[in-house]
Structure formats: structure tokens, C-alpha cells
Design goal:
7 helices
Amino acid sequence: MPEVSLLRLYLLRAMYLLIAAGLGIVLWPSIVSSAGTAADSNTVVMALLGSLSLLCLLGIRYPLRMLPLLIFELVWKTIWVVAFALPLWLAGTLDAYGRETLFACMVGVVLVPLVIPWGHVYRTYLAARGEAWTRRS
């Protein structure tokens, strides 16, 4: 079985660190200071992204085991860009918050696929034939 190169492992670790640090700097002060103030969609998003930032810290230690986090990051950002930001941008109605978020998401949409070892993803998640695939319920 082909191994993932050491360079790729360091790139993965750097991506996990970038996500954890970026969310840590931007998001965690709001989470800590606003605990118990509201129960709305914004606090749900903060909790979700806060958990993502903490799990990315595990990705620094276990870069291949935590690959589903990077896949999740790529998928949610791509969905948001295609389904929400792009139509608003094309219509000329994307506000300042949307433009900032679009830029941040596009960084992820461009960089995350560059660091993911797609061969490993294929072998591990798509071509694997383990007990879970052959076991009958």
C-alpha cells in the first residue's frame, strides 16, 4: 500500500493548524464572551465551528485519521459558495459580510483540495472492502 509522503503529512498538519488558529482567533472570543446570551442560528454556527477548531487540533497529531474534517470543510464551503454566495454575487447583492465570508471560503476551497492526499482518500474511504461493507444486518 503506497504511503502518504512526509511532505503531505506536514501540509495536512499546517492546514489543521491554520483552521484551528484562524477559528480560535476569530471565533473563540465570541464563544467565551457570549455564553448563555442567545439560542439562535448564529450560536449554532459558532458552536459547530468551535467544535471544528478543537477537532482540528487533533488533526495536527493524527493528520490522516482526521481527514474527514478537511473533507467536511471543503464540502460545506463549496456548498455555501455555490448555493448562496455565487448567486448573490452574480446578482450584485452580496453584502460586505458576504464578501468577507466568500473570500475566506474560497481560500479553503482552493487550499484544502491541494493538501488532501486524494489517493489515500480513495483507498481508505471509497475502495476499501472491510467488514462494514460485507456484513449483513
